[in-house]
Amino acid sequence: MVLKNKIVLTTLTLLISFTALAQTERGKASYYSKSWSGRKTANGERLHHDSLTCAHKTYPFGTLLKVTNPVNGLSVIVKVTDRGPYVKGRVVDLSVRAAKELGILAQGIAPVIVERYNPSIIPFKPEDFELPEFDLGTNEGSSAKPIWMELRDQRIKRRQEQAKLETEKKAMERRKIEIRDSIALRLANEDILDEINSKPNHSKAYLKRNKK
Fold it and tell me: 51 forms bridges with which residues in the sheet?
C-alpha cells in the first residue's frame, strides 16, 4: 500500500512538472537597444546588454525562461527582469546578448517559442547563474526601451528633420524670387532715370506727361 502511494505521488509530480514545461508561447521577440544599458528595469535591476535577461508581461520577476528560435533551432535561458512588450503579437523583449545567442540581431524582430525553464534541469548550479551588476546613472523610474521603439523614434525624428529642411528650402526659394524681382524692378527704375537724364525732353516719361 505504501509503495502504491509512492508510485501515485511520483506519477502526479512528474505530470505536474511536464505540464509546467509544456506551457509554451509562440509569438515574436524583439530586443533592447544597446544604448539602454544601465537603465532600471521594472524589478529595480539595471539592464546590461551582455546579461541574459528579458521582459515578459506575466511571468514573475526572477523566472527563468527558455526562448527558442524555431528557424535555426537555437535556444537561450533568460531571467525575467522587466515587463512588456506591450505590442500585439510580441511575447518577449530580450537583451542584446540573448538576441545574439538566438541569431536574431540582424532581423530585430523574429518568431520565437517561449517556455518556463525548470531549475531542476538546468545543466549548471543556480548559484553559478550570475548576471553582471552595473550602477550607471539614469533617471529614476525609467524603463528600458526595446530596440523597435528606438528605431520608431529615430524614423519619426528623421521625418521631422526632413520636413524642416523642406520648409527651409521652400522659404529660401521664395526669398530668392523676392530678391530677383526687387533687383529687376530697381534696374528698370534706373533705366528710366538714365533715359530721363540723357534725354530730358524726349524720354518716354516726358512724352507721356506732355502728350497732346
Answer: none
Cell 521594472 belongs to residue: 42
Highest mean pLDDT among 52-56, 156-160, 185-189: 52-56
The overall longest dimension of the chain from CA atoms, in Å, is 139
Question: What are the CA-CA distances from residue 162 to residues 41, 97, 168, 170 (Å)?
Answer: 34, 34, 10, 12
CA distance 11 to 23: 19
Q: What is the DSSP letter of 128?
A: G
Domain that holds residue 24: 18-145
Establish if 13 belongs to a structural domain. Answer: no
| Cell 543556480, residue located | 126
Last residue of a domain, one of 91, 110, 145: 145
- Asked if the structure places residue 2 within a domain, the reply is no
CA 74/CA 72 separation, integer angstroms: 6
d(CA 150, CA 133) in angstroms, rounded, equals 24
Give the Cβ contact number of residue 143 at 10 Å.
15
Please state, in angstroms and rounded to a whole number, the distance separating the CA atoms of residues 51 and 54.
9
d(CA 35, CA 49): 8
Peptide bond preceding 85: is omega within 30 degrees of 0, i.e. cis?
Answer: yes
pLDDT at 202 over 50: yes
